[in-house]
Amino acid sequence: MRITSLVVTATLALGCVSVSAQTPRAGSGNLVSTSLRQQWDSVKKNISESAEIMPEANYGFRPVESVRTFGQILAHVAGVNYLFCAASKGEKKSPHAEDEFEKTATTKAEIVKAVNDSLAYCDGQFTALDDKSGAELIAMPFGMAKAARAGALMMNIAHLNEHYGNLVTYFRIKGIVPPSSRPAK
Q: Fewer Cβ in 10 A, N or C end of the chain?
């Protein structure tokens, strides 16, 4: 739990620094939720573009046998998105299990759909979030203690960034420039 807290704190701190030029001025309200939305938009873009950019032939690639394939990472991310965002919504049960897509989505098209659907499912939570609702206590996934709604969303962002880091390595091994390193359009 300490490591998770450190990751969440670091993610929020980095997010606040990286978006400070775009964040409303102090006193204008909803600074935390605005920062979370900006971090969400950034990682959502990286994950979604990763799913699209990697050729289907590389979805089964893994650098060593002991790690997930590129496609399995994305399928895992899709499942966990549902868990964190269902908790944030106050739903007693997630619409999808953590490992559901790893077991059922085997083609690029199926995985891309699972990822994009999970991102869309979470979008509503990030859009509706304000600082007041972000401070409300909710039941967390994975049997964790109750925490602030914003905490569940921060953990989701941290989780996505963690796995985006894995995907970047896979891209580099395959000689492909990852989304966050590509020139702006």
A: C
Specify the 3-state DSSP secondary structure of 112.
helix
The rounded radius of gyration (Å) of the Cα atoms in the chain is 16
Determine the pLDDT at residue 28. 57
Question: What pLDDT digit, counting tens, does each position of 41-52 carry?
Answer: 999 999 999 999
Q: Which class for 133: exposed (0-12), middle (13-18), buried (19 or more C-beta within 10 A)?
A: middle
Q: What is the pTM of this model?
A: 0.83
**Which domains does the chain carry?**
2-18+32-178 (1.20.120.450)
Question: Which H or E run contains 54?
Answer: none
For residue 119, give the H/E element and its range: helix 108-128
Place of tokens 């509503």: 124
Instruction: Give the distance, in angstroms, between the CA of residue 146 and the centroid of all CA atoms in the same chain.
Output: 20
Q: How far is CA 147 from the centre of its chain?
A: 18
Q: 2 exposed, middle or buried (CB, 10 Å; 0-12, 13-18, 19+)?
A: exposed
Eight-class DSSP state of 135: T
